[in-house]
Amino acid sequence: MLFNCYSKCIFSDDGSISFADVANIIIAFINLCLVVYIFSHQRKKEKNERIFQQQTKSKEFRHNWFKELIILPKIIELNSHFSKVEQIAEKLKQTGLTIAQRKKIDTELKAEFRRFSKEFVELLYAVNLTFADKIQKYSDDCLDSIQLQIHTPTKSLSVEKNFQSLLLENIRTYRNSIISNIYSFEDYV
User: Fold this and answer.
1) Three-state secondary structure readout of the chain
2) Is 130 a domain residue?
3) Is residue 167 part of a domain?
């Protein structure tokens, strides 16, 4: 019965289909396809936006966690480390240092850098290996640059200008690089 009613709506009395009816069916089908496409596309877009927002919130949470629990308590340690390094480096300003005195200064520096690595950098390894390796490399490079001046001085470090340019500027550059990387850590989280 339903089929008879449907067939009467589409087919005329003589059994032919009118062009207007066919056009209406095609338009209805295209509209249905368009509605399905728009609905599925909108759903997919909303899902992607939710995922992005969740990832952003998660990244912000990890970054804040890192800053609050690791960096803020240890930033004093970082500044203290570089202050100690500068104090030890001050000993290189003395004129006529013997090889034994230079070795003693070198030993003090190595001990300070080991302490820094143990108390600060090792904690970063728990957060992110790549990031900790980068901070450790800055620390190692800083020690290497000082050791170069201890064992093969190119200029007299007793001259304040030489001491500033060859040692203190390098130490401060490395410190600033470490601090800059710490505060831009979100790239690693």
Assistant:
1) CHHHHHHHHHECCCCCECHHHHHHHHHHHHHHHHHHHHHHHHHHHHHHHHHHHHHHHHHHHHHHHHHHHHHHHHHHHHHHHHHHHHHHHHHHHCCCCCHHHHHHHHHHHHHHHHHHHHHHHHHHHCCCHHHHHHHHHHHHHHHHHHHHHHHCCCCCCCCHHHHHHHHHHHHHHHHHHHHHHHHCHHHCC
2) yes
3) yes
